[in-house]
């Protein structure tokens, strides 16, 4: 019954409603737009940005560091939109109303998680050729999977931890720090791995880690363990919070 | 339709059970009102019957099956209207109903027809955040009725509504009953319960000490007297007469023939009186 939420007609019905819901809130709409725009702007601004940074500060290829932020941003923003919708669903009683339908809370949550991961993955798939076109195929796959998973984590952390929308907004300020965590990967010290507890760090390790970089296989395994670990904790907390 | 026997439920950490040996039945096509003070366990009872609360002992059956065994198919056959509006505020009324209709496997009713039944057809394309509380409650009711359920749980269905809309909602509930739908109602509005419920049960101390039809209970808890108000030269005067043998009561007959009677009322208890006596609240 829970999986019936993934039937195309039902899934599209929910997606249409969510699209209308988001489009009528300027803040949510802005977040969606801003998850896509930076990657497009980056493609056009890369060379002027590198030139300007070199001329002004003597920093070469600053765009490769900005790219990390541009790639992680969709996960943070798409996740925030979904998390905020889930907070509203919980606070406004909609989740309770959904719980007395055949789909249930679990089915509805499955839809929200699936659509969040799909949008996160789709935006990343579009962003890769614009932002990091020359990375290896395995890295591209890992990147898409990581952003999809991080979108879900960013979505779930809000209703799992915050008791209401006000707390949700405060928590957002904290979770936004995850967008700059990948930059820690450029530090050529083993201490940088401490930041590996934050899932987004591994995108930095994957794309700009110091030479010699960790093997992709090691990064992939660590990435999976970190993301799955966080998901387990957050979904457990969410279960406690929404029943 | 609903059968509850010796239902016991204690919330984790609570020192006393919320429900203790709760027993009642609701027959198919009946409007049953569960009445009681706040915190008496009405919502707990509803949540157990809706399959939302586990960890109880005793029997809770719907459609002749234990609630736990019905799984999520239960929700194809029951509709729930909560005390607070549970709808998307940025969507219109029609968009909300289309969304919820999409969550059922069976064919649902035309959302416009359901909206019209609660006088919301004109507001179908209006965003819900522009609705009054009464309008939101009526939309809540629409959501509960979309899939034409056999059993409907209604929690304070006329909250926030003006008298005319309250009347409309009560008429809708009575129309549902005429179509064979069973209604399980919880309300603090005793006049409403008296008007539409076939039977009521007063929940107190985790069980139902008093149950029956409103008329039967009002008679049982009332005085068998007739209060007569007469117009005298000094003003209005009230007198009470025992109902037994009233046809032979010379004084009463004298008042009738003298044409001085302004009004006559039998002295049944009101459901408010019965509520207070049954639940002990306010005594």
From TrEMBL, chain A:
Transmembrane segments: 27-45, 65-87, 108-135, 141-162, 174-193, 213-238
Domain of life: Bacteria
Alphabetic keyword roster: Membrane, Transmembrane, Transmembrane helix
Stated name of the protein: Uncharacterized protein
Lineage, highest ranks first: Bacteria, Pseudomonadati, Pseudomonadota, Alphaproteobacteria, Hyphomicrobiales
């Amino acid at each position: 019954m829970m999986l019936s939420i993934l039937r195309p007609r039902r899934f599209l019905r929910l997606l249409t409603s969510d699209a209308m819901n988001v489009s009528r809130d300027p803040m949510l709409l802005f977040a969606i737009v801003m998850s896509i725009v930076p990657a497009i702007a980056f493609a056009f601004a890369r060379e002027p940005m590198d030139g300007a940074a070199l001329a002004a500060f003597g920093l070469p290829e600053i765009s490769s560091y900005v790219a990390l932020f541009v790639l992680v941003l969709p996960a943070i923003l798409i996740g925030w939109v979904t998390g905020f919708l889930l907070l509203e669903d919980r606070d406004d009683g909609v989740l309770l109303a959904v719980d007395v339908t055949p789909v249930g809370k679990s089915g509805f949550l499955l839809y929200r998680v699936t659509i969040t991961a799909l949008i996160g993955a789709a935006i990343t798939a579009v962003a890769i050729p614009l932002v990091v076109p020359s990375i290896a195929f395995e890295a591209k796959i890992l990147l898409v999977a990581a952003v999809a998973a991080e979108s879900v984590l960013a979505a779930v952390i809000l209703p799992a931890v915050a008791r209401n929308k006000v707390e949700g907004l405060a928590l957002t300020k904290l979770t936004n720090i995850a967008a700059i965590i990948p930059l820690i990967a450029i530090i050529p010290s083993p201490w940088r791995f401490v930041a590996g507890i934050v899932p987004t760090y591994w995108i930095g390790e994957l794309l700009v880690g110091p030479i010699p970089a960790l093997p992709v296989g090691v990064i992939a395994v660590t990435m999976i363990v970190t993301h799955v670990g966080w998901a387990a904790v957050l979904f457990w907390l969410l279960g406690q919070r929404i029943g | 339709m609903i059968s509850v026997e010796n239902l016991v439920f204690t919330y984790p950490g609570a020192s006393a059970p919320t429900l203790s040996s709760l027993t009642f039945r609701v027959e198919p096509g009946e409007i049953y009102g569960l009445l009681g003070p706040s915190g008496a366990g009405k919502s707990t009872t509803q949540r157990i019957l809706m399959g939302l609360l586990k960890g109880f002992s005793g029997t809770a059956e719907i459609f002749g099956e234990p609630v736990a065994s019905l799984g999520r198919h239960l929700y194809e056959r029951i509709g729930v209207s909560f005390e607070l509006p549970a709808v998307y505020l940025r969507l219109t009324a029609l968009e909300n109903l289309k969304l919820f209709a999409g969550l059922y496997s069976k064919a649902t009713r035309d959302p416009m027809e359901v909206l019209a039944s609660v006088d919301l057809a004109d507001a179908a394309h209006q965003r819900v955040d522009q609705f009054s509380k009464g309008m939101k409650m009526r939309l809540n009711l629409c959501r509960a009725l979309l899939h034409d359920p056999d059993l409907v749980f209604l929690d304070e269905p006329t909250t926030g509504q003006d008298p005319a809309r309250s009347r409309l909602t009560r008429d809708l509930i009575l129309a549902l009953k005429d179509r064979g739908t069973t209604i399980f109602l919880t309300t603090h509005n005793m006049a409403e319960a008296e008007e539409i419920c076939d039977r009521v049960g007063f929940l107190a101390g985790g069980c139902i000490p008093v149950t029956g039809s409103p008329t039967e209970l009002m008679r049982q808890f009332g005085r068998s007297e007739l209060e007569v108000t007469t117009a005298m030269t000094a003003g209005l005067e009230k007198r009470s007469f025992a109902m037994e043998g009233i046809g032979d009561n010379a004084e009463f007959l004298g008042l009738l023939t003298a044409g001085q009677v302004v009004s006559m009322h039998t002295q049944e208890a009101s459901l408010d009186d019965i509520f207070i006596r049954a639940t002990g609240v306010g005594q």
